[in-house]
Amino acid sequence: EEQLVESGGGLVQPGGSLRLSCAASGFTFSIYWMSWVRQAPGKGLEWVANIKQDGSEKYYVDSVKGRFTISRDNAKNSLYLQMNSLRAEDTAVYYCARVHVIAVAGWFDPWGQGTLVTVSS
Amino acid sequence: DIQMTQSPSTLSASVGDRVTITCRASQSISNWLAWYQQKPGKAPKLLIYKASTLESGVPSRFSGSGSGTEFTLTISSLQPDDFATYYCQQYYSYSPAFGQGTKVEI
Lengths: 121, 106
Hints:
The complex is a heterodimer of chains A (121) and B (106). With 121 residues, chain A is an all-beta fold. Helices cover 0% and strands 56% of the residues of chain A. Chain A starts with a strand and ends with a strand. The model of chain A has no long low-confidence stretch (mean pLDDT 96). Chain B is 0% helix and 48% strand. In chain B, strands 2, 4, 5, 6, 9, 10 and 11 form a seven-stranded mixed β-sheet that branches. In chain B, a hairpin with a 6-residue loop joins β9 (85-90) and β10. Classes of the chains: A mainly beta (121), B mainly beta (106). Chains A and B meet through β5, β9 and β10 of A and β4, β5 and β10 of B.
């Protein structure tokens, strides 16, 4: 069964840092683009970042550029999101998702169960 | 950036109803569009990609159509399990974007 499991969420103060992890299983992780997508409480879905199979290309939504870094370790079948300079508006459930890329982007399937990040003092 | 707008934001319907949700893109995205279903406290689930291709295992009562800037998701006969929030998503650009969602409620 293809599965993604996120971890690393929690409560952090504004300006703080957090590193999210996503463990993949049931598929060949190294041949897929991967993404992080977030959802603020009671709000819609927002794409956060994409990373190519070998990590050579990365894309970010404007609101996190310079603060968040997406990375991966294909040997460990793992995806990461390093989040620095966190703001209250970064509070959300963060999902990792596999990307089925067509040309420059793609659709997301499967998704992990999500991990909640709360930025508050 | 390409903006996605869904309508309506909320839809009240009954079991057995035919339901249609519209998604409009701010510029042409060809058929690079996906639809997802999300239930409270759960991750989104892929329903349709390439505007009209049904994901494996998704009931045939779901269908998608459209190209360019206007797209629709149709549920031919609403079932109790279909009450959820539905999102469209474009993947035409390097910055994929979702619509704001349509909540289908009783």
